[in-house]
Amino acid sequence: MTDPFLIDPRRCEERSDAASQGQRGPGVGSHGPVIAAPQAARNDGTLRTEPLGPLAPDRLDRLLALNNAHAAELSLLDAARLTHLLQQAFWAARVGDMDAFMLTLDQSADYDSPNHRWFCERYPHFVYVDRVVVAPTARGRGLARLLYAGALRAAAAAGHAAIMAEVNSHPPNPASDALHAALGFHEVGAASIHGGAKTVRYLMRTLP
User: Fold this and answer.
1) Whole-number Å distance between alpha carbons of 208 and 200
2) Alpha helix locations (H) across the chain?
3) What is the pLDDT of residue 75?
4) What is the biggest distance separating any 2 CA atoms in the chain, rounded to whole angstroms?
5) Cα–chain-centroid distance for residue 176?
6) At residue 104, does pLDDT exceed 90?
7) How many Å apart are CA 26 and CA 74, to the nearest integer?
8) 118-161 confidence digits (pLDDT tens)
9) Alpha-carbon span 51 to 71, nearest angstrom
10) What per-residue confidence (pLDDT) applies to 5?
11) What pLDDT is attached to residue 119?
């Protein structure tokens, strides 16, 4: 039986071919996904997600370093703020020791992100993908896709009707656009944030 939460790799390849004509982002972006190019996403079936927390101090440091290496696409965190987000997470997971991670929140999170707030003002219940990052050495293995599949399953199991994310439109991130389109996300709004430094597209995927 086809897993409804996994991407058909052929759809990724088709959309990524179109995206490759534009500028590529460095990995998952905005507060939402800095991702590997989706046409390279492959998983041999041996990969699996693991709960992200609680974390030993050395692993927290590695997680913080991975996040802050992509601060332009995500947002810069210190240890206290990262711990605060992890404590509120709806679903948070990693792949490998720290090859990739995803952190999601629901509508009840105490979070000052303008993107989370945008969804809170419009939807009573949802799961929001705050950040997902794949380390440069781990790209091309389908890790972002694997993490999204886990988050989608968790959201559906908890009775949520939708999962939300956002992607930068300025600066552009065509690889992230391609992945979200392949996963069935559609645009529900847009905004300029951080004093006009970024423009983002707000995305939603309804759940079965």
Assistant:
1) 26
2) 9-19, 57-68, 79-88, 114-120, 143-157, 174-182
3) 84
4) 47
5) 9
6) yes
7) 11
8) 999 999 999 999 999 899 999 999 999 999 999 999 999 999 99
9) 23
10) 52
11) 98
Q: How many helices (H) and strands (E) does the chain have?
A: 6, 7
Domains belonging to the chain, first-starting first, are 9-206 (3.40.630.30)
**Block residue for tokens 């988050």:** 151
Residue 17: is its pLDDT beyond 50? no
Left (φ > 0), alpha (ψ -120 to 50) or beta: where does 16 sit?
alpha
Measured CA to CA in angstroms, residue 105 lies from 57, 87, 100, 126, 194 at distances of 22, 10, 17, 8, 21
**In the block, residue with structure tokens 């896709």:** 145
Angle of helix 174-182 relative to helix 143-157, nearest 10 degrees, comes to 50
The span from the CA of 140 to the CA of 156, in Å, is 27
The two three-digit tokens of residue 38, written as one number: 């989706």
The values of phi and psi at residue 149, to 5°, are -60, -40
Tokens at residue 192, please? 């300029």
Q: What is the pTM of this model?
A: 0.78
Q: How confident is the model at residue 27 (pLDDT cuts 50, 70, 90)?
A: very low
* Distance in angstroms (rounded) separating the CA atoms of residues 56 and 169: 36
> Which tokens go with 163?
């999962």
